[in-house]
Design brief:
The complex is a heterodimer of chains A (568) and B (206). Chain A has a five-stranded mixed sheet. In chain A, 42% of the residues are buried. Helices cover 64% and strands 9% of the residues of chain A. Chain A has 16 helices and nine strands. Chain A starts with a helix and ends in a 7-residue tail after the last strand. In chain A, strand 8 and strand 9 (553-561) form a beta hairpin. Chain B has 206 residues and is α/β, with parallel strands linked by helices. Chain B is 56% helix and 12% strand. In chain B, helix 3 (64-73) links the parallel strand 3 and strand 4 (80-84). The chains are: A alpha+beta (568), B alpha/beta (206).
Chain lengths: 568, 206
């Protein structure tokens, strides 16, 4: 068991005093009193219902559900609710049990209960860091161990008290204290988790509650009832032989519905069992034996339920994390596109500025010539012709860019690779020239056409070029050179397109996880560019890889299959 | 020293821009040479030729700002006008720090460009004429005899002819005749001019 304390808080959120009890802070005295009063009434009522036997004036009911209720309250609200237990024991002794014990003894018994359970509850909560939401197996163990320790101590102290007062003889100690011990432990084991879960439920993530199917629940109820009927039918002597039948519905409910399922199934089983035993007027010894078996069932059910819940929660967290990652990826794809576009926009401004500069200078010189006393009109006409060519060039830059920015669903068509590479080269040239980096295109003369989305493929190449330029620029390397290359290969028939640069290279550690999302070497990078590239290439039936990470000769490549069956 | 007119050296890696700017400046009456890179310009640099550099900031190889620094390091006093399509404040600051005459954004405003070129050329000529007169002065001073130099320093230091005569134990008349020879060799019309010359030659503190 490894306590997961630091993570637990952020994961489940049910750790503070859950539900209504969470508001039981000193400022809210009325709420506290109401809760205490309700708890007291519940305790006394449950004592009254569960009271069956008394051995020599000592109540030896081997089932103490009231204690489970008050213990839950003490776990949630702290030691001050020990007062409720004290009052509850006193009232139950005097009214329900109509005990013949004297007042000092009654008060002593109540004090033992209140102090021991109050102390163990606080100990568990504060020092063992019991999570009241019982989200982990560890918390279930802590709760059971706490209950067992408290019950053992109470049994010892009560025996001592009664022995000292002559209410109990040495020979009766075991007879009287064992049912007490079993009853207290099982009260805490069955009722406390159920209550803690009921109160804490509102704070759990919604998916944690599996959808409950009514027919299925009815089957469990029927199975429990049927098992109890068989046990009852076999009589008190042989009934315990069939007790194992009860494990089936409890364990199945725990597997299906986790810890909550186990709690409910166990509560049902316990109620049914007590009812059946009561009906057949089972004696205290047999009752205690059945309750001991019930205790084993409870432990099993709770542990199975906790393990299942833990796994369900972990699955849920993984699914949520995956969903968040997908969301982030989509956002980042947009962001990456935007950053590509904004980089392009800056390059575009540069590329338009050049012909504008030339055009303006030529216009001014033509104007100047015309204003001369003996104008050389041929020269002015020449200037105007060149000027128009520059303006046309600026126009073509804009239309190229518009093609590139065309956003929308993938537009799949036969792509002329050479044309694509030339266009990409001229687009990339803008960005490269702005950084004083040379860019070369080295494409085979004959390249077969591929089938795919022209804009997406261009985005992949431009992304590689962009990365290369950035790597060279950041490393402040002189004579930066980026080369785009393409060639066709056989077996399998494919085209490989590569972007290489003479930048600083890519380290081994980074190379291994390059194409995973959120991997980046850039200070402000999102680390999604390459994963998007990989996704695009993948959707084209190709693959992308780091061909060489050597400094001075870094190359990314991707392949596109020829004759691919992508033409759906 | 050659006294040919100034040349405008237009340096831009974009052929369209350098040809158009060259054509415009040529039409405006300047003698223009164009270079496709700062390195090409530096390799053919003739420091004796007066002129003005008009260079793009962003170019492969040596960029415009580097070029301005390089010229300063080589003690070439050509004025540099930088032009850029990516103008921003840090770049402008770097350009001026590197000693550029002006920093002009593309598309280039020709009025601003011509004004910057003219300002640079004026500064260049002013500097050159000063250099020339310093050289002439040094030549004149070198023609003085040691005795004349001694008396030159004393005159520049404010001694009267009598005081100089007393100090050097020669007659005032002899001092007067030395003074006349010195003034003639130094082409100084008055003692005030002589003192200014002494300051420029570093013989006395101004």
């Amino acid at each position: 068991m490894t306590p997961l304390a630091p993570h637990r808080r952020s994961v489940s959120g049910t750790l503070e005093l859950p539900g209504t009890l969470a508001r039981l802070q000193p400022a809210n005295v009325i709420h506290q009193l109401v809760a205490a009063a309700a708890c007291l009434v519940a305790y006394v009522a449950l004592e009254w219902i569960s009271f069956i036997h008394e051995h020599k004036n000592v109540p030896i009911t081997p089932w103490n559900p009231g204690l489970g209720v008050v213990f839950a309250l003490m776990v949630l609200g702290g030691a001050r609710y020990a007062a409720v237990l004290f009052a509850g024991v006193v009232i139950a002794e005097t009214t329900v049990l109509q005990t013949s014990l004297q007042w000092p003894i009654i008060l002593g018994i109540a004090a033992v209960f209140a102090v021991v359970y109050g102390g163990t509850a606080v100990l568990a909560r504060k020092y063992v860091r019991l999570d009241a939401g019982l989200h982990h197996l560890r918390d279930v163990f802590v709760l059971l161990a706490t209950g067992l320790a408290g019950a053992t101590l109470v049994a010892l102290l009560l025996s001592a008290l009664l022995l000292a007062n002559g209410q109990l003889e040495w020979g009766d100690v075991l007879v009287a204290s064992l049912p007490l011990l079993v009853g207290d432990v099982i009260g805490i084991a069955v009722v406390t988790p159920l209550l803690l879960r009921l109160i804490g439920r509102g704070r759990d993530p919604p998916i944690a509650h599996a959808h409950v199917r009514v027919p299925e629940v009815l089957i469990y109820v029927a199975l429990i009832a049927g098992s109890l009927w068989i046990i009852a039918g076999a009589g008190t002597e042989d009934g315990y032989k069939f007790f194992y039948l009860l494990f089936v519905p409890v364990v199945v409910a725990a597997v299906r519905y986790g810890f909550d399922g186990a709690c409910v199934a166990l509560a049902l089983t316990q109620l049914g069992l007590v009812g059946v035993l009561h009906l057949f007027d089972t004696d205290a010894r047999a009752f205690t034996e059945f309750q001991t078996l019930m205790l084993a069932l409870t432990g099993t059910g709770l542990i199975v339920g906790a393990v299942v819940s833990e796994r369900q929660n972990a699955d849920l967290l993984v699914r949520q994390a995956e969903a968040r990652l997908r969301e982030k990826e989509a956002e980042a794809a947009q962001a990456a596109r935007f950053s590509l576009v904004s980089g392009m926009a800056s390059a575009l401004a540069h590329e338009i500025n050049q012909p504008m500069t030339a055009a303006r200078a030529l216009a001014r010189s033509a104007q100047h010539i015309v204003g001369m006393p003996e104008p050389d009109l041929g020269r002015a006409a020449n200037n105007l012709t060149t000027l128009i060519a520059h303006i046309d060039h600026a126009g073509s830059v804009v239309s190229h860019m518009r093609d590139f920015l065309r956003r929308g669903r993938p537009h799949v068509s036969t792509v002329d690779l050479r044309g694509l590479l030339h266009d990409t080269h001229s687009l990339a040239h803008l960005a490269a020239a702005a950084h004083g980096i040379a860019i070369e295109l080295d494409a085979a003369e004959e390249l077969p056409p591929v089938y795919g989305d022209r804009v997406q493929l261009q985005q992949v190449i431009l992304n590689f070029v962009h990365n290369a330029i950035e790597a060279i620029t950041v490393a402040r390397l002189p004579n930066g050179l980026v080369r785009i290359s393409a060639a066709a290969f056989d077996a399998p028939a494919r085209v490989e397109i590569g972007v290489s640069d003479n930048g600083p290279g890519i380290g081994k550690d980074l190379a291994d996880r390059l194409f995973a999302p959120l991997t980046t070497s850039k200070a402000e990078g999102l680390g999604l560019g390459l994963s998007i590239c990989a996704a695009i290439v993948d959707s084209h039936g190709g693959r992308v890889w780091l061909h060489s990470g050597t400094p001075g000769a870094t190359e990314f490549r991707f392949s596109l299959p020829l004759n691919s069956s992508l033409a759906q | 020293m050659t006294t040919s007119g100034p040349t405008i050296f237009v340096i831009d890696d974009q052929p369209s821009v350098r040809h158009a700017l060259g054509e415009m400046l040529n039409v405006f009456g300047f003698t223009v040479e164009t270079y496709e890179s700062a390195d090409a310009f530096l390799s053919r640099l003739d420091r004796a030729r007066p002129g003005c550099v008009v260079a793009d900031v962003r170019m492969p190889g040596t960029d415009g700002i580097e070029l301005a620094r390089e010229l300063a390091r080589r003690k070439v006093s050509l004025p540099v006008v930088l032009i850029s399509g990516h103008a921003d404040v840090p770049m402008a600051v770097a350009a001026i720090k590197a000693g550029a005459e002006d920093f002009i954004e593309k598309p280039v405003d020709d009025v601003q460009l011509v004004a910057a070129i003219n300002r640079g050329l004026a500064r260049l000529f002013e500097q050159q004429s000063q250099e020339r007169s310093s050289e002439a002065l040094a030549t004149q001073f070198a023609r003085l005899t040691p005795r004349q130099v001694e008396i030159f320093d004393l005159v520049a230091a404010g001694y009267t002819s009598q005081a100089i005569g007393a100090k050097l134990e020669i007659s005032t008349r002899t001092v007067e005749s030395y003074r006349a020879e010195i003034m003639e060799k130094m082409q100084a019309e008055s003692v005030a001019v002589l003192v200014r010359q002494a300051v420029r030659l570093g013989r006395v503190a101004p």
